[in-house]
Amino acid sequence: MVGPQRPQFVLFGSSIVQLSYSNGQWWMGSSSFLHYHLSDIYSRKADIILRGYNGWNSRRGLKVVDQVFPKDAAVQPDLVIVYFGGNDIRLKKIALHIRSLSEKTRVIFRTCPPVNEEQFCISFGTELVRSNEDCQRYSNACLELCRDIGGSFIVVEEILKVLKEAKWEPSLYWKSLPTEFTDLVADDRIHTINVDEWTLYREHWH
Fold first, then answer.
1. Rounded distance, CA 60 to CA 39, Å?
2. Fewer CB atoms inside 10 Å of the end CB: C or N, the chain?
3. Positions in the chain whose pLDDT score sits under 70
4. Could you tell me the residue range of the domain that residue 135 belongs to?
5. Is the residue at 203 inside a domain?
6. Are strands 185-186 and 8-13 parallel, antiparallel or unpaired?
7. Per the domain annotation, does 90 fall within a domain?
8. Do the domain assignments include residue 147?
9. Does the N-terminal peptide bond of residue 4 adopt cis geometry, omega within 30 degrees of 0?
10. Please, what's the b/e burial string for 111-132 (b: 16 or more CB within 10 A of its CB; e: otherwise)?
11. 159: exposed, middle or buried (C-beta count within 10 Å: 0-12, 13-18, 19+)?
């Protein structure tokens, strides 16, 4: 652990998490940018940790969830975003395990993205094994689960909206978290500024 300790956000899921920084991953689409944007938005505020396993579904994830998230760990995550949407189905036990880690740990679920069915068949040279109809059924099941256990589904903007509006203490919203090492930096010999307060390039995030 590199100190001082920041809040930890863990992204737990399948290929869309593991390969989120890889080039040319057409099947991920814009949803893969979640991890990129969160790392930028929460720079100097929280650590974004990837725990992605290419080709896995939540059945496999469930087998290792107590190793990835041991209950006796000295530091527990503040937020876990679960995304096995591309390959899936067993989520409830994962959700219950993560929620039991500590009182501070929050969990967010993402539903699976739509499928470019034509491109999928061309790229893999097989008959369609994953359709938008299947994705819709999965998404509906995920929403129902989240209603049952109080979780959420979202992409970047909606995640930020949830974090902003959540009544969690402490708040995990990016503008509410303290900035690490907020020493003033001299811009000349007379005036000082805090460059971390420059958020013009983040104006689209609320």
1. 26
2. N
3. 1, 3, 21-33, 85-90, 111-136, 138, 142-150, 152-155, 182-204
4. 8-165
5. no
6. unpaired
7. yes
8. yes
9. yes
10. bbbebeeeebeeeeeeeeebee
11. buried
Helices (H), the chain: 15-18, 33-41, 58-68, 92-99, 117-124, 132-149, 156-165
Assigned domain for 173 exists: no
pLDDT digit string (tens) for 90-118?
A: 677 888 899 899 989 988 877 666 656 56
Q: What is the pLDDT of residues 115-141, one digit of tens each?
A: 565 665 555 555 555 566 666 676 777
Read off φ and ψ for residue 119, nearest 5 degrees.
Answer: -65, -35
- The CATH number that applies at residue 149 is 3.40.50.1110
The single-letter DSSP state of residue 112 is P
Q: Three-state DSSP class for 108?
A: strand
How many structural domains compose the chain?
1
- Are 93 and 153 a contacting pair, CB within 8 Å? no
Q: Is 33 within 8 Å of 25 (Cβ atoms)?
A: no
Instruction: Return all residues near 191 (Cβ < 8 A) that are at least 6 apart.
Output: none
Q: Among positive and negative, which fits the CA dihedral 34, 82, 160, 48? A: negative
In 10 A of CB 89, how many CB atoms? 13
pTM: 0.69
